[in-house]
């Protein structure tokens, strides 16, 4: 394989294209608009309708685990008053998913190609005439 799983993970964690490593996942000037394809290598970034649901679930889970649970624990330990915890939880429930949006989209794409690295165009080899595709 030309692109290794380690490269895919590093590219996913840094919001880069898993195929070529270019920073082209999002449309310039539109921070929340995912590009249809990588402008550097042509990799289709929007896999199919509904593929964003995994990224949305990842974003939701990370918001709960990394933000809301620590606020709850701080409240239960008496470090925060009920009002302060409610305000922090409310602000974080809106703010954290917005800040984490780009990473969640990149991480979801990364997870797909970590499981199926052979689907990256860089890892596909040309089939020779007369060669069986499945070998």
SSE topology:
Elements: H1 5-13, H2 52-76, H3 82-115
Helix pairs in contact: 1-3, 2-3
Describe this structure in words.
The protein has three helices and no strands. With 135 residues, it is mostly helical. The protein has one domain. Helix 1 runs antiparallel to helix 3 (82-115) and helix 2 (52-76) runs antiparallel to helix 3 (82-115). It is elongated, with a radius of gyration of 19 Å. The two termini are 15 Å apart.
Could you write a compact summary of the structure shown?
By secondary structure, the protein is an all-alpha fold. It has helices at 5-13, 52-76, 82-115.
Note the beta-strand portion. under 5%
Count of folded domains: 1
Secondary-structure-based class equals mainly alpha
How much helix is in the residues? 40-55%
Q: Show unreliable segments.
A: none
Largest sheet: none
- The overall average pLDDT, rounded, is 89
| End-to-end Cα distance | 15 Å
Number of discrete helical segments: 3
Choose one word for the global shape: elongated
What is the alpha-carbon Rg in Å?
Answer: 19 Å
Write down how many β-strands occur, each being a DSSP E stretch of 2 or more residues.
Answer: 0
Following the backbone from N to C, one meets helices and strands in this order, namely: HHH
């Amino acid at each position: 394989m030309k692109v290794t799983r380690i490269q895919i993970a590093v590219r996913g964690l840094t919001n880069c294209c898993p195929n070529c490593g270019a920073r082209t996942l999002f449309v310039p000037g539109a921070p929340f608009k995912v590009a249809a394809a990588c402008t550097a290598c042509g990799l289709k970034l929007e896999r199919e309708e509904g593929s964003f649901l995994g990224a949305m679930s990842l974003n939701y889970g990370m918001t709960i685990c990394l933000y809301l649970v620590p606020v709850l624990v701080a409240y239960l330990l008496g470090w925060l008053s009920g009002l302060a915890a409610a305000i922090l939880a409310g602000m974080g429930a809106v703010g954290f998913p917005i800040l984490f949006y780009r990473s969640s989209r990149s991480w979801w794409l990364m997870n797909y190609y970590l499981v199926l690295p052979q689907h990256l165009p860089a890892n596909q080899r040309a089939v020779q005439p007369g060669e069986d595709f499945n070998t």
